[in-house]
Amino acid sequence: MSNTADHADSHSSLVVDNKKLLMWLFLGSDCMFFGTLISTHLIYRKLYPDSFEPTTLFSLELTSFSTFILLMSSFLMALAVSAMHKGQLKSFRRNTLGVIFFGLIFLGCQVYEFAHFVHEDLTLQTNTFGSTFYMMTGTHGVHVAIGIFWLICMYFYSHTGKMDAHESAVDVEVAGLYWHFVDIVWIVIFTAVYLVEFIPEI
Amino acid sequence: MSHTETEIPTPKTNPTQEPEVLKAERSNLGMLRPDHNKSVIIDWLTTVDHKKIGIMYGAIALFFLLVGGLEALIIRTQLAVPENDLISAQRYNQLFTMHGTTMIFLAVMPLNAAFFNFLVPLQIGARDVAFPRINSLSLWTFVAGAIVINFGWLLQALEVMGLFEAKGATAGMTDLVPAGGWFGYAPLTSTDFSGAGTDFWIMGLQILGIASLSASMNFIVTIINMRAPGMKMMRLPVFTWMTLVTSLLIVFAFPAITVALGQLMFDRVWNTNFFNVAGGGQPILWQHLFWIFGHPEVYILVLPAMGMISEVLPTFSKKPLFGYSIVVFSGAVIGFLGFAVWSHHMFTTGLGKVATAAFSLLTMAIAVPTGVKIFNWVGTLWGGRVRFSAPMIFALGFVWMFMMGGFSGIMHAAAPADAQQQDSYFVIAHFHYVIMGGIFLALVSGIYYWMPKVFGKMWVGNLSTWVAVLVVVGLNVTFFPMHFLGLLGMPRRTHTYLEGFGWETYNMVCTIGAYVLAVGILLLLVDMVRCIRKGTPAGNDPWNARTLEWSTTSPPQAYNFAKTPVIPARDALWEHKYGPENRRITYEEDHGHGVHMPSQSWMPLIASIGFIPLGLGMSMMQAGVPFMGYVAIFGLVVVCVGLALWALEGPGGYHLHPEEG
Amino acid sequence: MTTFVTKGPVAEAQYDLFMLTVWVTFGIFLLVGSVYIVAIIKFRERPNDDRPMPSQGHGNPLVEIGLIGASILLLVVIAVPTLKAIWFTHDTPDDPESYLGTWYSGEGLAEEEAENPLIVKVIGYQWWWAFEYPQLGITTANEMVIPAGKVVHLELRSVDVIHSFWLPRIAGKVDLIPGRTNSMWIQAGDNFARWKEKQALQGEGPELREQYATYLEEEIHDYYYGQCAEFCGESHARMLFRATVVGDDAFAAWVASEKEGHRPPDNKTWEEWYAVYDKNPDALTGDLNEGLKIFMDRGKCATCHVVKGNPRALGVAGPNLTNVGSRLSIAAGWLNHHTEEAVIDPEQQYENFYKWIDQTNVVKPGNLMWKANGGGIGELTDENGDLALLTDDEIHKLSLYLQSLQ
Q1: A18-198, what's its fold?
Q2: CA C370 to CA C378: how far, in whole Å?
Q3: In a mutagenesis test of the B interface, which of C28, C82, C126 is the best target, namely the one with the most B β-carbons within 10 Å?
């Protein structure tokens, strides 16, 4: 993405690579971002009329399935990173394709879910629950989509022959950091948004 | 005085030779890189040099300082006499909204960024920032945001000239300039109560947020990773430390406003219910999110100023900063506590007494680290040798004015007293003492201090004394009476007022003061132009300063340091000049491959330009102008294409071989 | 509007706390400021200064810790009274003297309200105020009337954007936020006990009571200025209000007159007047009758305004106009027509009504009465649908009629 560190400009005693540090900072910022979205949802989730009952809408089976898929994609991502470190380009490609495939399944589930909810009359406009729910999960979906796009670019880039085990491993690792983060955020959302609704009296 | 100065090795390169030697290479995409271009314009548009980027930030910020100042002058002229009808109510609302937005986001923050850019790599002994192209992206994205946010003025001007009318396809384009205040409280910013101006404001701020976030992440990585050997964290100049804290604040505070603006945009464009009471929304949510960002923002503005003062005072007292580690630590504490006091902006919203009490006490607590800084500055002067050069005069003024602003801050912290002061002119007096008396004076001090380094020219004559007198007198005459106006019951953000409440004289005095202040600021610009045009060569170290940036040439070469310096101590240059033998700055041997320079690039500029159609398209789409959705998508595509080509073109780079004499 | 001359315990507590912060900070300012000035003068560089380099000390931890400790101590001096004042100004006090049943002598008070203080619902609109007295069943606008020396509990709501209720001499502000109800308490003047305490008097005698009554009458009965303090849109600057503080009897009399409302001109009942109006409106002559007719039809005033008594003036989009002729100001406090002794100046009052109807959009730009999407007086039309604003003569008669609503 940017100026590489191949010319030893860095004199730091800390060993975190520039790009990785940048990604960590971005993720810190993104934490606050999702934190704000999720807390808005938690404050707003009860500000709707009593007649609305999200548990009738949610399908825990489907969401658990897509959560599992996303978790597995993180596993494949870890394998891809490790393959790249070892310079095993083929294994990297295979695992990356797996991540992309699983990510697409997750997005597909989300699109299906959104379509289903809209059909059941929960839209952005229906109530505060709808507004916060779609904005938050939608933002997460956009993060996943960006991640998939990024990995697709990397997959094709790996065919140009310009990837080397040293420099590109860092790039792949940075993408991996991002992917794992998006995965963790989903686990928080799954707990704080989906599961919470099934606990009575909260 | 003992003159044991040793010669600083300065590279004697002949820069005019370089373009002949160096030819632009091709990027990974096969396109010619804009390196070593003979066209000055292309060179500046594509530059990745932190010094050039810093200068551009500074120039643009000064331009917007004048714009915001002009807005303020019109405001003050309108308020000079009661029941004045110089401008309409709505024009007044537009002016104070844009005055606040401009001064905070387009003048003070970029002026701080100018100093970050120019100084941080020099102060830590680095060749450039960690990500030079991201730095360029931050600059141009900031410009794109500034254009989007001010676009309403352009349309408004066209409307006044009769060239634009809100009818037909553009029927929704009413209320063109943002008029909801810089704080944009919902539901006044909903579609029921405001028009297209609010959309420009939302999109403009979002774009500026991207610029600020990318810039601050870049600076954090730079400061943590790019320090010269031996430049330990506790040897960093305080200004660099404050840059680090400020950048961290931006990284963690901006997401809150990004979400809030996103929610507001959803409300406006897609009729969601975030701030819509009828749909169950709570307008108070906006205030919480806004101030979770907004209060750290105050420290984002002031901490760099504190850093500059902590550089200037020691230099002109010939003493190290008193209690370096405590000054650094208190800066960090201020930054941290800054996240825990946002609700003191909301004491009158009915928080309940426990929350009010908690935020009241926390706000008082933040006075402690702030006080510590002031004690340490006084301690720095004590026992020193105070030299009244121009930068020092402004720095001394800063300490005094900032104290006054701080004390009225303590008065607000007492929540019941704040119930009378909130939203009155007392608050305006308070934060203008902090921003004008504090931050602005520090920035002027910084300009006088570092301009010789930036342009290699020394100041001519004594105009700075006049600037100091006019600015300090002007700002006190303008803002001191406002304390009384507020206590006499004059609310903020009112375009006019009735006669007979005893406000007339005070208002007239404030207005006169504002003009004095304006003259002072114009003189400052005159002095700057004079310095650049007629200044005498400054030499490396005109102020007998302490930190690393003064060890290299003025202006610094593109590569900053011919050889990487090795830092033996805090106040590296001072120790080098006056310290014991073992504290000399040494230089790493260059192993023959010269200085690696990053290649220039068109891509950050292209990606940034995409934000303009994206922002304007989204704004006008809300107002119902046809095809604007496509314009926004076009903008997004430009941004994405710019970023993708950026990734593919490769970092490039070339080597310079500074010859040593 | 000054906050320096306080006329009630809330403003007083806020002012006292403010002055405490002023003195404490002023003390620090003097101390630090003088050390600062001494440092600058004493350690300045002199011409041809050849003294040796100052000692390069990096600071003194003991001094630092001492100063931090001192700052914390000084903050505690402020913090304790702050906490006290937060609790004091937040909770509506339970004061038997303020119970409605104790002092209110008028009619129509439900028994269960006898042990409550007076409640006023303050509702903010762009850009005017409604004041409802739910216990007494009356509503007024822009000029509230409250009893001297009694606790009044305010419930603050807004129907559009955020406003803020600020009555500087009586109490600091609390916001009116759509979607929630805030509350605050105000009290104009001290109650008997507090007054005695301040005067260092004791006992219960009728003489003391008389002295207290004189205090209220001379120092507290007044016409207080208030203003919206939160930016609320185009005409925010012109959203003022007033509070008239009166004695118990005057308050009861005011309530009675508000409840009674108005009769039509010529001493008719409303049935009689409408009987003529419906069949043969031309028979209703005279400026006041003409004015009332314009109020009902041509000017469409009754669509948005209530006039108590008039069975067909029931609109609630605009301010309640009952007794608007006895208010000392109109247009939410922007147009004033009273002498310094708070007595109405009729000529000025007429001019203000005329100006307000004639140039609503100038006096308060953006307001609903001028353009209400087909209902405002800036959009009045004739039978053909052409714009037909009120004529000078119509405005004249309407103004006279409104003036008569006393």
Answers
A1: Four Helix Bundle (Hemerythrin (Met), subunit A) (1.20.120)
A2: 5
A3: C82
